[in-house]
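Convert to structure. Protein one:
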Amino acid sequence: MKRLLIVSLFIVCSLAIAQEKPDYSPQLTGFVRAWYQADYATNSSQYLVKQARISITGSVNEYAGYKFQVDLTRLGKLTSTTTTVNNTSVVNSVSASFPEILLDAAAVITPFKNFELTAGQFKTPFSTDNLKSDQNHEFANRPLLASVSPNGRDVGFTMGYKFKGSINSELIAGSFNGPGLNKAETDKSMDYVLRAVVSPIKDLNFAASYYAGKVSGGDQNFAGFSGDYKYNSLLVGAEFANKTVSLLPGDITGNSYLAFVTYSFAANDGFLKEIIPSFRYESYDPNTDKDNDEAGRMTFGLTFEFAKITFAHFRINYEKFDYKDGTANPDKLILEIQTKF
């Protein structure tokens, strides 16, 4: 009996130790977004595989981790040149072009709690909208705000610290090459970014970002501000960004802003989890010193979230444009099916 008790205690202790051991195995995730798009400016339509992404994340110990992500829709294309010999076309060279398939390749170090160092290629910490993952975004297309923001991803280094207390906040500072995805430094100078986020109450966030760098021998500066609030099933948000490029004969300043709202209705059907209507209004002015060059866009959306798949939805977006210079408005209808694993 005594021996049996000792063995039982040993087994219980072994199980407890095993349960407490952290899991450092890689985590594989991915998603596919398939589109049908109708363009009413050109009266054309097409099917698209918008994104097919695979991501691997994980930790090697309690202080170090990594993230790797690729988009297989960006795979290279073969191009060839031919020569006509005796009225026959003969291939004389073939080359492959591999564009920006690599999205993220980042190493993460956490020397102590709430402090994080990240190096490699990853999302630039500018614009709240840019930092949202594509599979969790509220709309099919990114906003016009991207036109007055730095590159969405770049190669660089950041350090960030999260302050926990009665008012939560986060501060991130970093340096990047500047040219964007999978590109080396070209202008012999680094770009710099600073971002601060403050959450005075639960689900209410305010953010400010500043980015400075070089382009074509001149200076470029970006500033951005955003706010969002989630109350039960209601989500509202707004964002503004400004871009100034200093080139001869003078500065060029552009800006953009957006506002959006979504509301989630719980579905009683076993097939559906939620039905989410959404609306976004945007404005983009590429040059504030020039008249009648603004563009506006309204997006009307309806998303059906499926419950029986880990993450899946069917989305309908209609984009209504308003170009002030008389350009034909490329109004679009987008139907999207997405699944994630």
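Protein two, convert as well:
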Amino acid sequence: MSNSPLSVQLYTVRDALAADLPGTLKRVADLGYTEVELFGFVELADEYSRFLPDAGLSAPSAHARLIGQDTAAIFAAAKKVGVSTVIDPHIDRELWKTRGQIEEQATLLNTIAASGAEHGLTIGYHNHWWEAENRFDGTTGLEIFADALDPAVVLEVDTYWIEVGGVSAIELLGRLGDRVRLIHVKDGAVTRDEEDQTAVGSGTLDIPGIVAAAPLAQSVVELDGFRGDVFDALRDSFAYLTALRVTA
């Protein structure tokens, strides 16, 4: 398991952030997290550049749609906040139906990665279920995509959505190897219903096996949905993963 600090994707607490950004960051830090992963940060770069340090947090990674977007504004905001890795979190499901479509999207992201490197930024991609669900001669769309990416482009594998797509996250992580630099660690009933997600360690996924399969990857906790107080889930996830590191 990686020794990188545990991070949390702030999309998990999006409602609280919208109501009170500095207060929410402090609540996340009080749970024990020292790093977070941003989303929707471009318009909030001034606020994050102030309130993250105030809370004792840093944001080494962030999500932003990159393909077809104004990357200059995204890169400027990332630099201002202190983000070093910008991850495209979504390429539309309709663009994963053929090898040609997949390779075309990889080419576009490669071009963006070259531009990002000029700003000192690493570019990555985060999957959903359809990149695993769509297969070509037994190979997942995500692996075809990875093969077409420049080696400088990193992967953030959402291990939960990979399982929803019908693929073993442990086996996929093994095949992708050190291309995977971050993993979204989440748990639950492995359905498309986001409300079926639970605190890490209380669902059906083999979390110890997953984190062991990506020893170079930073673990980023995320819940897309939760039936309860999401801060309780973040607290329990942190406790579980911290204890797992002690016993690993």
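The chain has a mean pLDDT of 97. The first strand starts at residue 7 and ends at 9.
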